[in-house]
Amino acid sequence: MNLRRILSPVALGLFMLAAAADARYVYVLPPTGTSSAQMLIHNEQIQLAGTVTVPAGSFQVLTNVPGDKAIVLATNNVAAVSFATLPNGPVTSLSLDGQPATFGAVTPDGLRLLVLAGSSPGSLYIIDAVNGNIQTGGKISINGIPREVVVTQDSRYAFIVSSGSPTALLTVVDLSTNQIVNQTQLAQVIGALHASISPLGQVYITGQYRMIEFDGRPPFAEHARSEVISNPGRLHFSPDGRYAIAANELLNGYSLICIDLQVKGPTTAAGTEISKILVSTSSNTAVRIDDIFPVNATTAIAYSALDQKMFGISYPSLTANELALSGVGVVNGVTSVTRTDEFPAARNLYYTSGGKLSRFDLVQNTALGITDVGSGTAVFVPQPNTGATPKTLFTYGGGLTSVKPGDLVPYSVRAVDANGRPVYGASVSFSSETAVLTNAASTTNVDGYAWVVATGPPANGDFVVTALVGSLTANLTSTITGGTGGGTGGGGTTDPGNVAKVIKVSGDGQLLQNQFTVNVLPLVVKVVDAKGAPIAGKEVTWSASPGIQFTALPTPTDANGVTQMSIYPNGDFQGATYQGYIATASVVGIGSTTFSISAFPNGQFYQPTIFIRKPTQDVRSITMKLGTKLDGAVHAIVSSATGIAIPNVGLRVSTPFTDPTQGPVVHCDGQTALNGTVLTAANGEVDCNLVAEGKTGSTSLLINVGEQRDFSGYTITVTPGDPVAPVIVQGNNQTGKPGVTLPLALTARIVDPSGNVLAGTAVTWDLVTANSMTLVNTISAADSNGLVSTKVILGPTPGKFKVRLKAGANETLFDVTIETSATGFAKVSGDGQAVAPINTAFAQPLVVKVTDASGNGVQGAAVTWTTTGSVTLSATSSVTGADGRASVIATAGSVPGAITVTAAVSNLPSQTFSLQSRLPGPSVTATSFANFASGVAGVSPGLLVQITGAGLAPGVTGQVNANILAGRLPLTLSGVTVNFQWTGGSGYAPIYRVANENGVESVLVQAPFEITGTTVNAVVNVSGGSTNVLAIPVSLVSPGVLEDVSGSRRAAVVIRSDGQTVTPDTPARPGETLRMYAIGLGQTSPTAYTNQVGTPDQNVLAKIAVGLDNAGIQVVSAQMAENLIGVYEIVFVVPVGTTNGDHPLGFVMEAVPGQPAYANGSILAVQ
């Protein structure tokens, strides 16, 4: 009977079951209330990877950046924190001064563990997540009862929310100094408190009736708050960060709420609740939700510990139903739920029920396995995904439409790999043509996030921040309004993408007498293009509020882009003592700008009051340093005749000098200053922050208010400013032989920002490289011309060196070159060495030697190193040591091939090293080889062997299966070959399949029947990169029952007498003769050969006994399966009287008398 058609699909379906352990773990904590017990550690495929003993009360599992430890927190006075080396220990524990841990978090860089403990006051412990020690200053007292802690994406600041009397408290700790930097009383916040941090870095505190948003950066201000009914829990954010889902405790029950963080209102400034539902079971019993797991952009899974139920959630318009899993149904008695961290859609769901841990693929919508774990809580903890290549970039924070100039706008990006796993440590660079950026260069954290803060530019219109990660780019675009050259609020409007501007030049802030034209200045504007160049011939249209008269015709700009309009105040005051007006200059297609004008009625009794508060009347002088700003140097107050404050009146301060080369020049400075004029505020008061430039000396100070009144009789004395970096006069870039004195003294002039000589200023001279030279005849105080100098005697070591000159906080560097005495340059070692795998260092350093005319080594010679090909060097330049030698380490890059490294010394022939790199071999060891059916490590002659390990299938997605209908299997498949080597022989393994599924790479092969001995070696080659595996255990036989999986049921592959596969729907019958398929049964008679299909009557030489219900039953035969390679069939009879249901099935064989070999146990359905 030809069973190939029947068995092949079954066998192919089994190939994905055997998987290597992955560095992504599902932990099962022992049940609450047990004493010290075992924590089970499973890989992502829920195969047991290890166990460790953890303290009683363990409740939380975390990990560090190396990913080598599980960090376990416990409500345990003696062992509150434990570090377990993965996967089997040892475990070290840490006491927190006898206090149990209550909450913990690892910083996003993975380097620090933050643990809360104690109460009234409590403590924050800051622990090194790598070595497990409490950091210096790492115990910080926190008032009240600390509840939760969150950390900003850059790992800089920790936010701790604590409850207490009379109010709750938010404490901010700077983790760079371990100091409290801010504390905020949370007024009107009571009840259970929770802290959450959004993908954009905003911190949210939720409590009874309140949700409060705080900025995640200094000064940590409360940004907004929303009223929420009644007591929302921790926020769980949608992948795009727009929506937050929270469990909500009502006064008389429970609900789920969805908050849109982009929709604001008068009482919901932090975000608006847009949907709310009561969650209930199928029997309409209301339930309390304890945890929420967003799965993708529209769905989440909620878990109720009290009701032991899972619920499927749709959002933002909320719906909730008991979760029914495909092929599983509704699961009852759920004791814990967790899921993997792929983004934007999670891949695997894990849950415990009835003492078993189950895995469900949320993408394929199928159950993937179940295993016994006993009681306990499952927790998925991803290891840092280091070294992965980012494939997708997600952005947060773009699309803002009303950013003001100077606003600090946070943006962030999230990088994930091809499997959706967040990438740790990827370099990110941010750039913008118009916005100033803070933290423009960073790396992604454990969650894949990197962030930047942009300062809103002054010009209206769109501005773009670009993120670059490897070959990926993303643009975040926001829009400035209220700035210059467009928009509203004084800036006018601008066409999208057009950054040409209309700029105010003068005339703003005038205070005028009605119907008077004396001292009335024209309104002057300038029109410029996107590059700031003037635009001539543009028509400017003018408009103004009633009370200001002007010529209604447009005015054209001149060759300098400038035009002006004369105005005449002629308003009706109707009893008022002043009026404020607005005049607007507009250019079609570019934008507009506005002027503020104030007027008062005609008549002697309506004169406004202008008072100069500073400088005071008794001290009418100011002294300030050149190049500095003196805040509040001049303060004026403007009010009407009846004492009403007049806003928007200009204050201008000057001296008789306009040319800074002739004398002191001063003006008002600041964000609100325009061409040296500042305007009064709503209270009629204005400050001038004075800046002095030009020459030093004393002169008169002129104060003008509103172009209406001048105030004289003031003086200003400008003293020399602080020194700038010393200005080199002579001596830079000199070259000489060792031991000589340079001909020119190093000379510099000490001046302030305006070039004024600072005679007498003390300076310091020093060497950047100690002992490289000697400084003599040094002058360290500026003479009357501001000059300082030093002579230089060159040291013995050749190379480029620097002399540092400091004046105050500023410095200047002189470059000096000491010539070498070298005459010879040669390679010493490292050329033509053994080929290295890509991304690994070559075994030998590349060494060169520089010699003098006598053949002695020359110390201090500078060697530069350059490369061609894919390679990196430990340094691009080096200096020879006392023996004249210099060296670098070469590391092969990611592309295999020829490599050239060239070493060069000035004025000597260069030396070239020739190297070669190759593809790496896969990451496999002897334990990577296992029985395909049983999973037992090792091989046996003719066995189907599953090899697992990284690098076996780098270019494969899913499975690549050989054509087994051809009668023979290929020896090469998808670039993979496996060559087994034993004493006296070797042979290539036929390959059934190469696979890369869920990040697990594997190869299924047949071990040659010719293998002898107790161990065998293997060479596994993938696309030219090979790995030698030594001492793989060999046994004479390695029996295994082939099994199939349907749903969560795993059963032996057995064929009934009518050709159907035995399943619960087509069970075996009592008294029926069946065929069971197995592997690893060893040699037959006639002889079985490698890569040949079975033929009739190839009987197994060893004795075989089959057991059903743990009792022996009749075996008819055990032979090679016809037309299959490496597969056996055992024919047996089901005993008459066997009861209905699943029955344990297995077999044992004896290839060597007295040494039984047992196959893996399975089940058989009988009815």
TrEMBL record:
Residues 1-20 form the signal peptide. Keywords: Signal. Residues 818-916 form the Big-1 domain. The keyword Ribosomal protein does not apply. SUPFAM superfamilies: Invasin/intimin cell-adhesion fragments, Nitrous oxide reductase, N-terminal domain. NCBIfam families: Soli_cterm. Belongs to the intimin/invasin family. This is Ig-like domain-containing protein. It comes from Paludibaculum fermentans.
